[in-house]
């Protein structure tokens, strides 16, 4: 397994392709295809300048399955790394099955007309991937991705069972813009405007979006307000850790972000139902995304750190009673930009996409069917995080979280 085809040419793809090129022993042949070829060419040029490695580029609409099948076969890809948008997950999985390639992504499938982040569409492909002798690895970004691996590492090395889990995602970076999103604006806004949902006593508990929050002191960022949200790894984490009493996801937002988002929501700009404008059907959120700053343009101006991690409480492996551990990574926007030309939100997603791909290409992780990160051995992935720019730390806390 040594020829990879990366789909999508945004910030996440840019980081992933740079990191693959920096590891040419694992990724000797890299192909990059997206809707806009000039964006692929710009990434390839930067990769050439920074690493000396060549990346072949192509134009593709990933929703056109026959065109995808042709491209996978033409380049001889064994692994397709989907870094386009969640809408393209199923057509790319279909193309992989037909062309005989393994599959990896960083975000679960979402229908365009419904902001529903659920794994069942992709889990339904399990038998087909199994019969074809192929592997699909879902959610190899940071969250989902690293947060899932962090949790399973704690369960392997520190805790026999997990009673409560809190995932805390803080982007302490300042990009100098009044309002911008750090990854694809359409996907980001669909995510944060959806109702919050957390797992408690075997059921989902739903609360209105952005209503429940808590201050939290993040190392190398400071105290920020973290908001309860739904995030897709809660679904896989609760499936693979059925003993959990409660699992929650928190993300920080500044007052300016909340103020702008509230106004945009109130005036209908975040809607995903089509409206007619000058005789043409448009989707308000897509129009908004088109006028917002492009996430990949924020790299140069973003200063500060991200701090993302998991706090898990449960029965200690060594039989010493209930223990609480906090495992996290702190990533500098400036250092991420210096290394790859992209800010830390793209970096913290693109690096795990490279590492997940490396796990598959080297055979460290293997299987036939559709898998989540939770099902794999966390150790080799955790080693690569330390070696490839996302070092992590783990600390024992005095007790469970009190929020
Ligand atoms: P961008 O919007 O910057 O990039 C998406 C890329 O996909 C663009 O180059 C776009 O093309 C391309 N694309 C869109 N539709 C198609 C299509 N039909 N065919 C081919 N290419 C297409 O997004 P990001 O780089 O910020 O994010 C990439 C992915 O990573 C998203 O799925 C996002 O949800 C996920 N993500 C995951 C995170 C995690 O931690 N797990 C965190 C952050 C993001 P064009 O340039 O023409 O628009």
Automatic annotation (TrEMBL):
It holds the Pfam family Sacchrp_dh_NADP. Residues 4-137 form the Saccharopine dehydrogenase NADP binding domain. Residues 141-390 form the Saccharopine dehydrogenase-like C-terminal domain. It comes from the Bacteria. InterPro entries: Sacchrp_dh-like_C (IPR032095), Sacchrp_dh_NADP-bd (IPR005097). This is Saccharopine dehydrogenase family protein.
């Amino acid at each position: 397994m040594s020829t990879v085809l990366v789909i999508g040419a945004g910030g996440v793809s840019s980081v992933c392709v740079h990191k693959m090129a920096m590891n040419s022993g694992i990724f000797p042949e890299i192909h990059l295809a997206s809707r806009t070829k000039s964006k692929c060419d710009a990434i390839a040029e930067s990769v050439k300048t920074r690493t000396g490695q060549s990346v072949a580029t192509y134009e593709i609409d990933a929703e056109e399955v026959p065109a995808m099948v042709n491209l996978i076969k033409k380049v001889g890809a064994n692994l397709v790394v989907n870094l386009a948008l969640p809408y393209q997950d199923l057509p790319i999985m279909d193309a992989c099955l037909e062309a005989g390639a393994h599959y990896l992504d960083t975000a679960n499938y979402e229908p365009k007309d419904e902001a529903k982040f659920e794994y069942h569409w992709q889990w339904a492909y399990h038998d087909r991937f199994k019969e074809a002798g192929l592997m699909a690895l879902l959610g190899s970004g940071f969250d989902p991705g690293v947060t899932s691996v962090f949790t399973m590492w704690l369960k392997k090395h520190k805790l026999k069972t997990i009673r409560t889990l809190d995932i805390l995602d803080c982007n302490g970076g300042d990009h100098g813009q009044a309002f911008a999103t750090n990854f694809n604006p359409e996907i980001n806004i669909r995510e944060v405007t959806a109702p919050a949902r957390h797992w408690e006593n075997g059921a989902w508990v739903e609360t209105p979006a952005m209503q429940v929050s808590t201050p939290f002191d993040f190392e190398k960022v400071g105290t920020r307000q973290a908001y309860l949200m739904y995030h897709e790894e809660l679904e896989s984490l609760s499936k693979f850790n059925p003993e959990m009493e409660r699992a929650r996801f928190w993300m920080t937002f500044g007052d300016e972000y909340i103020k702008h988002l509230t106004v945009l929501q109130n005036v209908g700009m975040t809607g995903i139902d089509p409206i007619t404008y000058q005789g043409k059907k448009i989707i308000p959120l897509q129009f908004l995304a088109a006028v917002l700053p492009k996430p990949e343009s924020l790299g140069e101006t973003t200063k500060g750190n991200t701090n993302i991690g998991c706090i898990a409480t449960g029965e200690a492996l060594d039989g010493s009673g209930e223990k609480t551990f906090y495992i996290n990574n702190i990533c500098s926007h400036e250092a991420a930009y210096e290394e790859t030309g992209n800010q830390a939100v793209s970096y913290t997603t693109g690096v795990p996409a490279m590492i997940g791909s490396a796990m598959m290409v080297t055979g460290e992780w293997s299987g036939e069917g559709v898998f989540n990160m939770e099902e794999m051995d966390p150790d080799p992935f955790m080693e690569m995080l330390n070696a490839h720019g996302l070092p992590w730390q783990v600390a024992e806390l005095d007790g469970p979280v009190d929020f």
